[in-house]
Predict the structure.
Amino acid sequence: MTYRILDAASLRDWLAQQPELSQRLGGAAADWSIREVSDGNLNTVFLVDGVAGALCCKQALPHVRVAPDWPMPLERALYESRYMRAVAPAVAGLMPELFAYDTGLFLIVMECLTEHEVLRSALIAGRAPSGFSAVIGTYVARTVQATGWINQPFETGARLLEQFSGNTALTRITVDLILTDPYRVCDRNPEPEAGLLDDVKALQTDEILHRAVGRLQDRFLTVRQALLHGDLHTGSIMLHGTDVRVIDGEFATMGPVGFDCGLYLGNLALHLCAAPHKAAELRAEMVAFWQSFSEELRSALQNGGGDMWALSGPAGRQDLVASFLKDILRDMAGFCGLEMIRRTVGFAQVADYGLCGTAQERLLARQKALQIGRTLIVEGGSQRSFDGVLSLMGL
Ligand code: SR1
Ligand code: MG
């Protein structure tokens, strides 16, 4: 199928020509209800309901959805479908099932999570049931187990490098928006509110900070530990009760595991800055994340299976896993800080600040996020324990 931007009518026609998908929906095509629910920055999303079932259809646009004058290659949909296929066996039930990918339309058709809500919205509304972070810890650990070098023969990593190293357009977004723009004068950065101007200027002139950001740029660009989700924020997670799903893997790339962990924690920490009265529950979520992640990874890596560490017996492996986790912890702290800063002053900011009751409270929340972010970036690399990372956040 040649590429064209779909609307409800053309999507209906296309689905009607796909026997397997039509069957999932059931009934006559004319009776399917189709609504656009696009919410993210990049793509259009439609939910389709039929008498027998529902589908979620996500199409890449030739530009950033929220910034139509910013061109963006369509291939991001291909990388997202590849990511879903690569990690699905390891994280079954923790992400939507992929039903189809159309190479011409750059269209993903997947399980519709009708009853689920985006975690960020649930947190903002104060209705996220506790315990979701333990699931995310499990999710990340399982993706590392399935795509990293420790449990898999090196050919697996080599294939993943080949499949994902072309995802440069979205990696470019990460390099610019997370790792560079907040620390330089850049048209993409929105005009900060007046009270934040000095803080933004400080980010652009702080040499100690720039050196530490440089180390994280190095880690992100040169360390290839496992296949990353690449954009694991609270808007990339949906939940319904205890059913937690990770969505939106279009930024997938091989990289340092601490990147996924850090982005996730960074979004909880941002929520904390906007809603300081929730400190105890957010701390508990962060602890649950690290506990489930580190325990699951420790046990998964204990028996090996890959070429890396193949010469070490149980005791040696235990030491190697411990030092691997320390590296992840340090990277996580730094990337957490980067995420907090970019979501506070950069192109794609978070809705969590809307929780602040007044402009003054919002300014203080943003300043707090910038201060914690800087501390994590500069001091994160010398942390030895998760408690140490929490203390850098004032927890
Ligand atoms: C132009 S894309 C901006 C941001 O939205 C995505 O969700 C990623 O977080 C990206 O950095
Ligand atoms: Mg997204």
User: Anything to note?
Assistant: The chain has a mean pLDDT of 97.
